[in-house]
Amino acid sequence: MEFSSKLLENAVYEMSQLPGIGKRTALRLVLHLLRQPETQTQHLVKALGTLREDVKFCKKCHSISDVEVCDICSNPNRIQDIVCVVEDIRDVMAIESTSQYRGLYHVLGGKISPMDGIGPQDLKIHTLVEKVKSGTIKELIFALSATMEGDTTNFYIYKQLEGVEVKIATIARGIGVNDELEYADEVTLGRSIINRIPFENALKSS
Ligand SMILES: [Zn+2]
């Protein structure tokens, strides 16, 4: 792509670093911004800058939060001894939108993926294991996507908790294999949490 303006080229380059945005789409977005009032670009830049500077991760569940302990963890009406294990905040949002789950969450921040160089130590697994070992949790629900990485992560956590008294369940797979949670429709996802199955049963069937 030949640019007559270095400023334009830089902006397009930065935009094209985003996932799913090729050079052409990046150019379209940048030109769109240039056609809009200048304030719109300023608001965008400010929102992203403030997010990066001020973002916090909940001390308890590691989800993105504006405060030290997120609204879900600090809500006394949530069931405190059931914890749903998810990959990131998108899963929390998807499950919350079903209104079928009243427990707490633990956000791992990804899945174990040797191909991408992500090992257990790169995820919030240690704090989860500690939390369970402290004896305050009655049930864990694995709600990672049904991919090889998701299964590996579930199994790793399961192994870490061997001998610890805690019920471990996995969401029922009305959700197809390889489907990411955020794409499951609310009814299916809600049902799969209610109809969760003991993790050991899931191990036998696979
Ligand atoms: Zn939290």
Automatic annotation (TrEMBL):
Pfam families: RecR_C, RecR_HhH, RecR_ZnF, Toprim_4
GO biological process: DNA recombination; DNA repair
Superkingdom of origin: Bacteria
This protein's record includes keyword Translocase: no
Toprim domain location: 81-176
GO molecular function, one term: zinc ion binding
InterPro entries: DNA_Rcmb_RecR, Rcmb_RecR, Rcmb_RecR_Znf, TOPRIM_dom, TOPRIM_RecR
Transmembrane segments: none
Residues in C4-type zinc fingers: 58-73
Keywords attached to this entry: DNA damage, DNA recombination, DNA repair, Metal-binding, Zinc, Zinc-finger
Family membership: Belongs to the RecR family.
Role noted for this protein: May play a role in DNA repair. It seems to be involved in an RecBC-independent recombinational process of DNA repair. It may act with RecF and RecO.
Protein name (Swiss-Prot/TrEMBL): Recombination protein RecR
